[in-house]
Amino acid sequence: MIEVKNLVKHYGDKKAVNDISFTVEKGEILGLLGPNGAGKSTTMNMLTGYISSTSGTVVINGEDILENPIKAKAQIGYLPELPPLYLDMTVNGYLNFLYDLKKCKISRRSHIKDVCELTKISDVSERIIKNLSKGYKQRVGLAGALIGNPPVLILDEPTVGLDPKQIIEIRTLIKKLGKSHTVIISSHILPEIQAVCDRVIIINKGQIVADDTEHNLSQKVSTDHRLTARIEGDKNEVIKIIKSIENIWQVRADVEKEPNVYEYDIEAAEGVDIRRELFFKLAENKMPLLMLKSANLSLEDIFLKITMGNEAIAPEIREVKKAKKLTEELEKLGFGVGGLQQAVSKGAGGAENNTTADTADVENKSVTEKKEKLITAVNENSKKTDEKNNSPKKGEKQKNVDKKEGK
Known about the structure:
6-stranded mixed beta sheet, 16 helices, 23% strand, 14 strands, alpha/beta, single chain, 4-stranded antiparallel beta sheet
């Protein structure tokens, strides 16, 4: 239905979109995600023919958006982030205007009535658009995108300005439309994408960095393969049954949640789904499975991990990982754990003392220099960690100030 091949867009020297390719099938709802400045809006604008690409192709239902723009655009219903409404028109007048503009061949009255009922704007159809609330204006914009019953819908932030009840209604409508339309949604509201989309594409720095279902992305990004189960029955017997399943690495019983009901953390081998076998094993032994949930990452966690990488990790964890990496590098260069501690305590000079005169050629000098740099880095890293750990908290700082002032 939608086929994008090697799409590129330059703004002067800046490459806003860099060689992206993807397809969207009929009946699929695709979520387009990305941080600000990632190239998401530029991609949406090229898909709708609003701007042209520097190179690459966009084909909508068999029609190239640049070679046959009128035929291709006739296949698209587009809702921009700010709906292009004529504020002095009534809702009914605006929808009739769009009906004429799109040269629709469907029965006018029944089609406009159906669209109004779908988007829940029948009660304001005779009101002037400028007098409507932001939520109603957004729904009128969505109704405009649906005029002509286009097979492709491209929606940019479709629930902006809606109240919680309206958001649920629009999500339900999008899911319903997704059965017979191809839908692309761009949104900063991650739970919205999570609730309605079959597949997610994440764009970062003009390139596609992820393209899969939310579940599969979670499996790829997470190194955790755990389940949490709440099971009724003798704790030791339950653990024995779980351990009898193949590819189980670890089982740990948590506190008793209800009489004779415990929660169990179950860790399985990567890529192995044990849920069905676990269910049947427990059922055979008449042990009710009261809850089973995966420890998969949320879409927000996936998004942060893919777009921010190491920056998404807490600073304290980053310091520990950095120290570990430096330690591993030094050990590769000949320092054991004890030797490393000795080298750190002595400073960079410790490396010089371990280098004998007969090995002081060019190659060993470079190794020595690398050791010195790594030891200095370890020292600096340790100093930072110590400063963080030893720095007084807010209350302690105030006590020290009061003490100095003689209070």
